[in-house]
């Protein structure tokens, strides 16, 4: 049940309250609970100072003490407990110059981004909702706490968070909030690319991304993001939830002239590798002609990756990326092929480079890599049995 996580965390709130302080559940978990969505992490907000929290609990970790956040470890779970906080002035559109601790819940929720995220809840599930957040949740609308223009001017990340929440929740963005997004979008240029990427990744995976993507275009969001700003984003189409890597691959494949800017996104090497892998699969799919080539494709890239690409056919079609003839390549055919693969990786071959060199009495060189690939292909395509004696015979006849 949705209440379980709160009931499990209730003793923390009780303990803080028994020590004479206030404590509430707050933020995304309360919002998701009121929407009947699955809840992940529970955040707690309190009138107690970080030092006071540390003295109340035996096991704490000061993960963000200067900003008021202490992790309380309770029954092997980590709970973020943050002291009521008010914020000083914002000068750079992304972080307050100073934060200070306060004893008043209202002051704390006043600085939060959206009304749906500013609802505090007690252990008996009663809510303290100063800004009408619950009504906005019922009406499915995203509304800033206080004047939208001001709130976005303080911190431009809130603009992206708002769009990200729309994509995840399928809500509407209230008019004044949307207009302020339009007016302040240029401030997102002050944000670090890492924070933009976090929000964009969540946004792209949201169930409502097909409706949010046109808004991103309308708001000129991409004009302020490295790499993206070099692309004609109106020529890129997103019709369904998509991973950031696949979207980048679509962009690079369709508009390769801008690829050198990818490094500016500061994504991990693993992510970059994935993007390049998707691009090379697109390239191979363009000329995929027979079952032999398909078998190699399944062997080289694996079932999960190909299955994901095929599942994205609507978006890929819309971007005019060819996925091969549906009679040759489809979810069933790749599953079938995967099941029948004789080997699943190079080390499954019943021979290795060393044995080949010894058998042929030759020195190593680039030819060896070629021949190993040829052996691999022949085995995959059932032209050669995966047995050492057979492979040696084959090598002698073919080198
Ligand atoms: P999620 O379900 O993605 O975790 P969340 O609303 O919990 O969504 P968090 O980033 O975990 O988002 O932040 C917790 C709470 O802190 C938010 O609900 C909101 O009240 C507040 N908050 C977070 N970022 C900002 C911000 N940039 N400006 C104002 N308040 C913020
Ligand atoms: Mg959260």
Automatic annotation (TrEMBL):
Question: Which parts of the sequence bind Mg(2+)?
Answer: 41, 43
* Pfam families associated with the record: PolyA_pol, PolyA_pol_RNAbd, tRNA_NucTran2_2
EC number(s) on record?
A: 2.7.7.72
- Where would I find the Poly A polymerase head domain in this sequence? 23-142
Is Nucleotide-binding found in the keyword set? yes
Q: What does this protein do?
A: Catalyzes the addition and repair of the essential 3'-terminal CCA sequence in tRNAs without using a nucleic acid template. Adds these three nucleotides in the order of C, C, and A to the tRNA nucleotide-73, using CTP and ATP as substrates and producing inorganic pyrophosphate. tRNA 3'-terminal CCA addition is required both for tRNA processing and repair. Also involved in tRNA surveillance by mediating tandem CCA addition to generate a CCACCA at the 3' terminus of unstable tRNAs. While stable tRNAs receive only 3'-terminal CCA, unstable tRNAs are marked with CCACCA and rapidly degraded.
HAMAP family tied to this protein = CCA_bact_type3
Name-wise, this protein is: CCA-adding enzyme
The similarity annotation says: Belongs to the tRNA nucleotidyltransferase/poly(A) polymerase family. Bacterial CCA-adding enzyme type 3 subfamily.
**tRNA nucleotidyltransferase/poly(A) polymerase RNA and SrmB- binding domain spans which residues?**
170-228
What is the species of this protein?
Staphylococcus simulans UMC-CNS-990
What more does the entry say? Answer: A single active site specifically recognizes both ATP and CTP and is responsible for their addition.
Task: Give me the reactions it catalyses.
Answer: a tRNA with a 3' CCA end + 2 CTP + ATP = a tRNA with a 3' CCACCA end + 3 diphosphate; a tRNA precursor + 2 CTP + ATP = a tRNA with a 3' CCA end + 3 diphosphate
The residues listed in the UniProt record as binding CTP, with positions renumbered to this chain, are 28, 31, 112, 155, 158, 161, 164
Cofactor (UniProt): Mg(2+)
Q: How does it assemble?
A: Homodimer.
Report domain CCA-adding enzyme C-terminal positions: 249-395
Q: Which domain of life is it from?
A: Bacteria
Q: Which UniProt keywords apply?
A: ATP-binding, Magnesium, Metal-binding, Nucleotide-binding, Nucleotidyltransferase, RNA repair, RNA-binding, Transferase, tRNA processing
Against CDD domains, the record matches this protein to: NT_ClassII-CCAase (cd05398)
Q: Where does ATP bind?
A: 28, 31, 112, 155, 158, 161, 164
């Amino acid at each position: 049940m949705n209440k379980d996580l709160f009931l499990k965390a209730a003793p923390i709130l009780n303990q803080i309250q028994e020590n004479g302080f206030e404590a509430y559940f707050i933020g995304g978990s309360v919002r998701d609970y009121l929407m009947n969505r699955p809840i992940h992490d529970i955040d707690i907000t309190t009138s107690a100072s970080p030092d006071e929290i540390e003295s109340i609990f035996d096991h704490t970790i000061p993960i963000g003490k200067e900003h008021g956040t202490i992790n309380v470890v309770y029954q092997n779970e980590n709970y973020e407990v943050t002291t009521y906080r008010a914020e000083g002035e914002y000068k750079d559109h992304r972080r307050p110059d100073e934060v200070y601790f306060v004893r008043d819940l209202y002051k704390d929720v006043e600085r939060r981004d959206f009304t749906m995220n500013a609802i505090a809840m007690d252990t008996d599930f009663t809510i303290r909702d100063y800004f009408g957040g619950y009504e906005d949740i019922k009406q499915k609308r995203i509304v800033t706490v206080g004047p939208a223009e001001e709130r976005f001017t303080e911190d431009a990340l809130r603009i992206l968070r708002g769009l990200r929440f729309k994509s995840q929740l399928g809500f509407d963005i209230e008019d004044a909030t949307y207009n302020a997004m339009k007016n302040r979008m240029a401030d997102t240029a002050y944000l670090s690319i890492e924070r933009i990427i976090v929000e964009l990744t969540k946004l792209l995976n949201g169930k409502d991304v097909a409706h949010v993507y046109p808004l991103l275009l309308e708001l000129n969001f991409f004009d302020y993001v490295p790499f993206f700003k070099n692309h004609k984003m109106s020529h890129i189409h997103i019709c369904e939830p998509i991973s950031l890597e696949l979207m980048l691959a679509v962009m690079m494949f369709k508009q390769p002239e801008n690829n050198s800017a990818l490094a500016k996104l500061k994504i991990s090497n693993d992510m970059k590798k994935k993007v390049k892998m998707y691009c090379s699969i697109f390239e191979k799919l363009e000329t995929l002609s027979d079952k032999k080539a398909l078998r190699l494709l399944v062997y080289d890239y694996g079932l999960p990756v190909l299955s994901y690409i095929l599942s994205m056919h609507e978006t890929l079609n819309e971007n005019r990326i060819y996925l091969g003839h549906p009679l040759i390549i489809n979810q069933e055919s790749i599953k079938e092929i995967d099941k029948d693969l004789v080997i699943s990786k190079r080390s499954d071959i019943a021979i290795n480079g060393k044995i080949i060199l010894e058998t042929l009495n030759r020195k190593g060189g680039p030819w060896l890599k070629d021949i190993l690939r040829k052996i691999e292909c022949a085995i995959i395509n059932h032209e050669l049995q995966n047995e050492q004696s057979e492979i040696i015979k084959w090598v002698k006849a073919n080198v």
